[in-house]
């Protein structure tokens, strides 16, 4: 079976595009195309997948089938609680426990019915479907 990187490279070559040409046609950053073809991007947003499929004349499901499936990874509640604590304490540079990509984090400031401030850690992975919400 081909990898996502191999598939995209093959379809790009077949269509006669350079990486820069494919990026321009898909209206995507060249760095993203390079990361996909280098095997660094393993999970693509729907819009990226659709743009690539349209330009490369294939079906989005052909691309999706080659993406890495992170759904089978289960993350223990201890790890999630630890991440929440780190987020609340302002730690930066956190990595996704599923795929190791950078986590995008923030602290939501909410108020309860008695106007008490409540801090809720939020995070989502920059590459896969992992997220923390409360």
**How are helices and strands ordered from N to C?**
HHHHHHEEE
- The dominant shape is elongated
Alpha plus pi helix count: 6
| Structural class assignment | alpha+beta
Proportion of beta-strand residues? 5-15%
Report the average pLDDT across residues: 87
Number-wise, the strands total 3
> Main beta sheet, described?
3 strands, antiparallel
CA(first)-CA(last) distance = 39 Å
Computed over alpha carbons, the radius of gyration is: 19 Å
Biggest sheet, spatial arrangement of strands: 1-2-3
**Regions with pLDDT < 50 over 5+ consecutive residues?**
none
**CATH level 4 superfamily of the largest domain:** lambda repressor-like DNA-binding domains
Q: What's the assembly state of these chains?
A: single chain
Percent helix? 40-55%
Walk me through this protein's architecture.
There is one protein chain. The protein has 134 residues and is of the alpha+beta class. It folds into two domains: 4-64, lambda repressor-like DNA-binding domains (434 Repressor (Amino-terminal Domain)); 77-132, no CATH class. Helix content is 42%, strand content 15%. It contains six helices and three strands. The protein has a three-stranded antiparallel beta sheet with strand order 1-2-3, with helices on one face. The longest helix has 12 residues, at 4-15.
